[in-house]
User: Fold these one by one.
Assistant:
Number 1:
Amino acid sequence: MERAAILPLQSPKDVSIGEIQAELDKLWSSKGEHGAARASTFTLVVYEALDDRVLLPSPTVESIATQNPCRVIDLRERTAGDDAVSAQVAAYCPLQRDKSSLVCCEYITLQAPEKAFVRMCNTVASLLIPDLPTFLWWQGDLDLGSPLFKELVKLSNRIIVDSSGFVNPEEDLQEMDQLASQGLHCGDLNWRRLASWQELAAQAFDPVERRLALSQLEQVSIDYKVGNPCQALMYLGWLAGRLGWDPLTRQQTIEHDYAVDRFTFRDQEGRIVSAELGAVPLIADQIVPGGLIGVRLLAPSSQINPATVICSETTGCMRMEAMGVAQQSVTHQVSPADDQGVDSLLSYMLQRIQRDTLYEETLIMVKKLINAPHP
């Protein structure tokens, strides 16, 4: 995604904790006369478990600033040193050719050890813009028992994560389900990455002559880039939930150096459906860890196109087509999308404050998959 040029209305300036709001007010009172408008649509609280970084906006935050007037409160965990809190304030404005005035993003950076952040959550609360939504973008290890996470959740209208970076994927996905079951509004950048795969699967069975094959599915194969099974589990959870499959068993094995996860289901007509998730070693920087590589849906009883293959254009369809009935397969390729970068995905999430019902329903099914009994 092409980013607009950024003008620092004020470069990062060191301030004391108690001076943050006053410094922002002072900034706008001095710059407003030069055509810089103070406006916000939300507050974005970012937690980053990153140590010893220069206190400047990340490219993702810059991208958000080019699209939305907002206030960013960036909490950066420091693991070394004392408990002191470092604070800076800044303002960044996208330069747009068709506008004579600047609408800018306020940027507050706080750097401290995690325990210090817990003590100053009241300060963070005082910096939130009243009557506007607050988003929490949590980039650390997901831990529902973390005092800091608990406090920040209380301040937020929506929690955003990226499950491609989960340290304990199965445990963390179940924790996301727990958050959603408590009525909290949650979003996952990795869930959004599945949109093209979901759309192509739905489109493959749109033709009237192929709809019968959908109810006759018996085998599902999903390949993903080794490293993180979250996408594969969510895709299978979405498919099983949409088709009303009831998980029966789960078996995890290693075959030919591949980690293979096998599931069985009972469909709505009482038939047994099998599914296989394969972690494929792959060197492809365009695909995030755990990103989907290929999906194969097989309906042997169908007389018309019994197999549907969906694969990444980056890796091709050879492995999926090699599994049989290639000549009778309906094949679709997922093209690399320009909106799959973290900045675009986050921007999409920031436009939505309401609950994602489909995501929540999928998390419920994923929990059932993870805890399915071994045969």
Number 2:
Amino acid sequence: MNDGLNQLSSQDYQELLQALSNVYSQIVESASYHLKSLSGGTVADVSFIEGIASLPSQKEAPFRLVFKRQKQWHRPGDEHSWRREYDLYTSQLNLLLTDTFRMPTCYLAVLHEGENHLWLEHIEGYSGSDLTMEMLEVIAFELGVFHAKTILYSSKLSLPTNITSVSFLEQELTQWYHQPYSYAFLISKECRLPNHVKDMLKSNPWDDEHGIVYHYLRSEVCDIPVHLKDMILSIDQDKDVIFNQLHSLPRALNHRDFWIENLFFQDGHVCIIDWDCVGFGVLGEDVASLIGDDTPTALLVHSFNHLLDAYQQGLGNHQIQTRVNRKDIIHIILIKYGYRLIQNYMFEENLELKSAILQRLQTFYFLRAN
């Protein structure tokens, strides 16, 4: 079954056998398998492993696992992100999780020099665009229950010290204020910016410490309607007041990548993958992501109302009296996605797609005004 091209190293194969031994609660001495890459990136290489395990009783047991290899790297301002998920799986977080709101079971976690390995349960169910509004409402409710429990009990548990801090949300906004690359590189052939953006840079005096999207939003080149530009600019201008309000809310443990591709729903149960950004922060961050990240624009108003209501009900299920008001949630959405939409508009040349971005901004404007 091993295809010769996608084989585990001898060390990884021994880890597979140990993980399978933990799955079946008996020693597994051999297994045939097929390895398929699911994704790859700077931080993690993720593979789906399917095969047959040979059990001591001479029975053969089919298995499906996910093998996640996370390499050490230094994310700017977050140098411990590469091992955060490993630390989380070896912590007491499971005491806050339930069958109806959980993370994949980890059958084996191994820390090597420069990388860590996670051998995880393979999750099946509805995910991404297959999630219905009814499923999303259940997810939002269970998220509220989870956040209520983190407010009440997390201080009594042993959680990793390297989880992200309350400043994570503010950094999502202020990252757009600064330019990490040199102006010379941005206009060079090596840079992958669209050519029309490079021409824009060459025609405007934006060679300073500020980001190019920051400059674009404030320039005459930007043809976004004034009221939509002012909506994003007002977040910048009032950010001290906005964050003071947000920080007055109770601290909740946020997943911080809580969007439909990381959510799986099956028979009323929710499983969430990819916990490498998790940390204590503003109550409502995750439900704002659930609403604002990939919801079709035509459904945004409906999702905003129904998912926020379900989330509030989940909070109340554990007698948490604090509620997140709608203004706070729309502010979080604009903090997380406002500049991203400006960048998408700046980089896009297709007029139909540019119009769709404006419509999304207009919907956020409607929600904020109401």
Number 3:
Amino acid sequence: MLSNNTLPPETRKILKDIPSLIDKTFPMPGRFRGALPSQIAELSRLLTNKRGDRRLSYLGQPNYLSAYLRYFLPWNLYRLCIILYSVDITLSPGDTITDLGSGPLTFASALWIARPDLRNIPLEINCIDHCAPALEAGKKFFAAVAGENLWKINIVRDSIDIRRTDVTRNKKRAAMVCAANIFNEIYEKLPHNNTDGLKRIAADAAFLMHNEASADACILTMEPGVPQSGKFISFLRAAFMELGRLPVSPCTHAAACPLNGGKKRWCHFAFETADAPKELHRLSAAAGIPKERLVLSYLLTGAVSKTPRSGAETSREKTREARIISDAFPLPRNRFGRYGCCANGLVLLAGEKERINEIGSGSLFAPVFAAGTSARHEGERDAKSGALILEVK
């Protein structure tokens, strides 16, 4: 189940200690601490509604890098740990991982924190980013998190150009490719009604990652949980399927995406942050951007399929599981609902508020169509979304 509540105690403890570890690794003179909340707020504006004013080298500026390390790095670690702990990733000694747009090595650090089963496996991670100061800071931070370890970290200063067929130019393809919060910096410049442009970016991104990966590799993409990102993930999924890579998570099936890049409904997951470090919450409040929830969209694809796509779809669809992809929301007659995605398309789980709240964002509700289960197929369609309505008892 995809949930922050399932993180093991050791991972939760490490995440709780991250703010103090950052302060210890990157000491900040007391006279500069007063300006930190305003610098975080300004960087947040540059990453959102003032994107046009942002330069590609923004993390090369010491004040912005410090703000990023103390605010955005801990929250992004939290997001990635939820995904990395929940999904199926199998790696062997000597495997290579390629991380596109590494920044301060957020992915490598999150993988170490979330997956203790991989710590004793010798791995080589190529961390690629255009910003040298961020990479150097990340290497220092990873060393503080992991200490003496068996992983070989290669920092590679290079830009991520999705029009290139590869980045690392290595003969050895990676057993895993990751791209976390990188492609939104490309498609955010598009008008939101430019569907064809977004599809082209998704196709180029899929082709780039596919060429970086070995045939049996997994590929993980994480983006902000906003509508445009959800549309991008939907198009990325379709592009990967054209390349023979079927979705592994969060999808429960390999049929066409029922959201199809829709404007009002998109695949995203929200998690409460009550157990995040108190220091991080205080810093967020001081910056005027408190975080009560973390929202994300992601896609994990697997090895290139050796069977016809229709056969793969048939075997996956037998599960009839639905992935919950929305918050709870009110329905008529004092009922509540959540949207889910399954092989039958978009479904609307409807029932009493308490029962619907028990079914968390990102969880699997299964099976939804078999007789004698907790949901009953009514055969009705939701007028707003067209989703099949399933009454939850």
Number 4:
Amino acid sequence: MNLSNFTGLKFSGNNVSDEVKWEMGTGFTYGLRAGVLFNRKYIIEVGYSNLGSYKYKGKWVYEYGGEVEKEDIEFDKKLPISGIFVTVGILF
């Protein structure tokens, strides 16, 4: 299980405030790893992690001169998050 939070933005100045707040996303996570040990001391490992896809939803809040506008917003499509990594290590 993965919990993902998309960072919000806030701008303000001269009686104007503009803010975007996003909700927390949750999804299924999986990963694969494989490694090789050399001379009982050196390790090389390669891995892949799929952290899920999220269709973030949030709220846009705009304030100007005391008046406040709010609007529900969301991404048009799911945002996939994944990564490939390489690890090199020495055992002590």
